[in-house]
Automatic annotation (TrEMBL), chain A:
Domain of life: Bacteria
GO process terms (BP): nitrate assimilation
Entry protein name: Nitrite reductase (NAD(P)H) small subunit
MF term (GO), any: nitrite reductase [NAD(P)H] activity
Record's keyword terms, sorted: 2Fe-2S, Iron, Iron-sulfur, Metal-binding, Nitrate assimilation, Oxidoreductase, Plasmid
Domain Rieske: 7-103
Record-linked PROSITE patterns: RIESKE
TrEMBL record, chain B:
Domain (Nitrite/sulphite reductase 4Fe-4S): residue spans on this chain: 641-775
Designated name of the protein: NAD(P)/FAD-dependent oxidoreductase
Keyword set includes Methyltransferase: no
SUPFAM superfamilies per the UniProt record, alphabetical: FAD/NAD(P)-binding domain (SSF51905), Nitrite and sulphite reductase 4Fe-4S domain-like (SSF56014), Nitrite/Sulfite reductase N-terminal domain-like (SSF55124)
Pfam families in UniProt: Fer2_BFD, NIR_SIR, NIR_SIR_ferr, Pyr_redox_2, Rubredoxin_C
Limits of the NADH-rubredoxin oxidoreductase C-terminal domain: 325-391
Domain Nitrite/Sulfite reductase ferredoxin-like: from-to ranges: 568-632
Ranges of residues in domain FAD/NAD(P)-binding: 13-291
GO MF, any single term: 2 iron, 2 sulfur cluster binding
Cofactor entry: [4Fe-4S] cluster; siroheme; [2Fe-2S] cluster; FAD
Amino acid sequence: MDQSISWITVGSVEDIPRQGSRVVRTAYGDIALFRTVADEVYALEDRCPHAGGPLSQGIVHGARVTCPLHSWVIDLASGEAVGPDEGCAGHCPVRVVDGAVQLGLAAFRPGCGGCGHG
Amino acid sequence: MSTHTNPPTPRERLVVVGNGMAGIRTLEELLAKAPDRYDITVFGAEPHPNYNRIMLSPVLAGEKTFDQIVLNGRDWYEANGIKLLTGDRVEVIDRANRSVTAMSGLTVPYDRLLIATGSTPVIIPVPGSTLPGVVGFRDLADVDTMLEAAAKGGRAVVIGGGLLGLEAANGLKVKGMDVTVLHLMDTLMERQLDRSAGALLQHELERRGITVLTGADTAEIVGIEKVSAVRLKNGQELPADLVVMAVGIRPNTTLGKAAGLACGRGIQVDDTMTTSDPAILSVGECVEHRGQTYGLVAPLFEMAKVAAARLAGSAEAAYTGSVTSTKLKVTGVDVFSAGDFTGGKGCEDIVFRDAARGVYKRVVVKENRILGAVLYGDTKDGGWYFQMLKDGTEVAPVRDTLIFGQSFGGEGAANPKAAVAALPDSAEICGCNGVCKGTIVTAITEKGLSSLDEVRAHTKASASCGSCTGQVEQLLALTLGDGYAGEAKAKPMCKCTDRTHDEVRRAITTLELKSIPDVMQRLEWRTPDGCHHCRPALNYYLLCEWPGEYKDDSRSRYINERVHANIQKDGTYSVVPRMWGGLTSAKELRAIADVVDKFAIPTVKVTGGQRIDLFGVKKEDLPAVWADLNAAGMVSGHAYAKGLRTVKTCVGSEWCRFGTQDSTGLGVKLERMTWGTWTPHKVKLAVSGCPRNCAEATIKDLGVVCVDSGYELHVGGNGGMHVRACDLLVKVETEAEVLEYTGSYMQLYREEARYLERTAPWVERVGLEYVKRRLVDDAEGRASLNARFLFSQSFSQDDPWAERANGSVDRHEFAPLAQVG
Ligand SMILES: Cc1cc2nc3c(=O)[nH]c(=O)nc-3n(C[C@H](O)[C@H](O)[C@H](O)COP(=O)(O)OP(=O)(O)OC[C@H]3O[C@@H](n4cnc5c(N)ncnc54)[C@H](O)[C@@H]3O)c2cc1C
Ligand code: SF4
Ligand code: SF4
Ligand code: FES
């Protein structure tokens, strides 16, 4: 399935702080790239499914991020809210090749709820 | 039973000599069996009610307070009609007349007498051994002496590298002394540990900064009026301000011998705990039973059971001796030992080493049964081995995996709950009190217990050395399922750990943990890198404990503190420059106006803290906004920080006709002193120029109200969701005192409040009296808190905006990584 996606290099893993995030501006809106303590890289729409908070500004722990606005916890791999909260952030395929971070933007899947406040 | 006579005969009189662990345990058991049988009098040479002697080590190390280790307070004696005479040593037993006479001259007759006088530390008879500054490690008075010495710093020499000596050494080290341990043998704790484990232990203690000299034979304690050094037989001399003798204990038989009771090394008793005089029983470390004496509580508690049964009139109970196991109570060092591990003919050694994790285990097996075990670094299977050792269990069926422990092969390895669930009912959980799993589970279900304290009260499990507390909690959880709410008092920091904020903080200090990964590693965090609850707290605790040394971890900060601005609901930020004491100037206002125009900032608002808030700044504009504000001399107002926010002032004597002092000027001084500090939660100050209190100083974390004769300092107030008015802390006369009190109050709050606890709930939790004791009653303590505050301030007063405006810090925060599509 990888073959069907065209990958765009957006920077190197080193550009993203460990346990941190950087934003990529795209036609689909801002995409937040996360780098975990184990150096895995994930990409989510930079909008919390609760009320649109910028997830890139959250605290990254394990493979999760806590939204800075009201502390929802979002799973980085799926974009789903964890625990009692329900909703999911848009999700974008990402891979690391020789230290370069590549986004499969064409396969970007927007979040289910978007801004939960409608 | 002989209680049916009427008219009621006077009750039999029971006198207990020794208000310690074995004596009072006997009474507890007796009261449970025959509550009304005796009129009871207890003599205790110490001035305290009954306390948990084992826990003196944690008290010395500052991990527990004395109040926390009291087993039975005076109200317990009262409630049970026991007459307690503390601070009164029994001097004579008159067996012919059946009475005892104490130091105070008081004589009390008995029908039954229980001697439980414990033991005394052995003091080696070298010259100088009676000098002031030489102590044993036995009772609270000894701990007080040690703490007093430690408060002055200096050097301590501990003679004896056994359990007590090492616990003393660790405590004194934690308390800041230079500590040397002298040990006669060539490995530490040689009676409990083999060479390998002893060497690992020595290495760990040395890593903590304790010097260990083995093969060290003391020749003399040197000193004129008090100890100044210890000289060894090889001529080496070690300077010392304090010498702790921990070379062993000797059963305290003085009274028994003088009364003519049969004594060997201890007061001799038979299997019913009766001495050579049938009216006199004896229990505890003072006795000798079948040629054995004991120095750990587990056997003493077994003796107490038997003695209580005898006193209650039962003929069946008998004590037949005990096998013991040992654990060292030094936080972060896990050592377990049981039985005989010297090996010898026909013995097999099974050894496991994992140098990377610092684990060493050795189990000695003879004829398919466990003879002894030594565990270092991972002691969770200690109880399991000990149980099989005592039961003489055949180990052939599990021989191959024995050394890996009980949970090997099962899923239990990483799951303590499953491990406890897998235990048979007969498995012993609490070694000190000999309580097995079945007893605890039955008590929980039949008596409807739902907390650790209740289980302790009913079964004694985990009530002594406390090392099985975790397992007892697992049993509560297993038995009650969702009905077990956990321990209310000891709420863990978050789901990543079982430890409370206070426990983690103490560990940071005592184990000298200096980074977040270090804390998580040593304290066994369950998650790889914590969560949004624990990381900011740990970052704060480390910053507070190691000023100038700890490097702030920006990834563990909430976004506002990471980018030094307040995030708003639309993802933009607000910016608040500092206005010292609420003062501003034309130049500052002009610069603000220019910034507003230049960056098209949509909203400008005056805050409740007397400054100006610029709303709707885009994140990428922040550095440029700050550069412009910096150019006009303005710095960050920390309006986003768990730190000092504002110092609100009124105009005071400079303009106001009621003003008594220069409240604005004082406010500026306070703000200059305190800005930039990190605290558990936000801190707001205020200064009002007279009791009309226009600056609302009495709902601030610290508020100053000026009066004609000086300054009233009010603490622990806040507005917000739960309004709390301040309490008056003290009244002082000079501005210098206001500054010193403020610094010391801030530091006390920084060091002792839990993360995210504001001063209002903190003051309510610890009590105003406590704060007064630390700040008002203790001038020296106040000065040193203030000094610590100023020291940490010397590292925190750099403007965070300037560093980011010039691009030298966190540049990546403010620019997108890329623009695509
Ligand atoms: C620092 C420390 C750490 C320890 N750690 C452990 C441990 O981890 N595990 C463990 O199992 N054990 C440990 N122990 C040992 C344990 O505390 C003792 O085994 C236990 O306290 C002995 O109980 P006892 O009642 O025989 O003596 P004590 O508890 O000493 O009680 C005797 C009491 O009698 C009083 N007394 C003596 N003579 C008279 C008199 N003539 N008149 C009136 N009162 C008198 C004494 O003042 C004392 O209060 C430790 C001991 C110490 C000191
Ligand atoms: S508190 Fe007193 S001094 Fe200050 S402005 Fe009000 S009336 Fe004047
Ligand atoms: S009172 Fe409520 S709405 Fe107003 S600023 Fe504070 S948190 Fe926001
Ligand atoms: S917007 Fe993310 S938690 Fe509310």
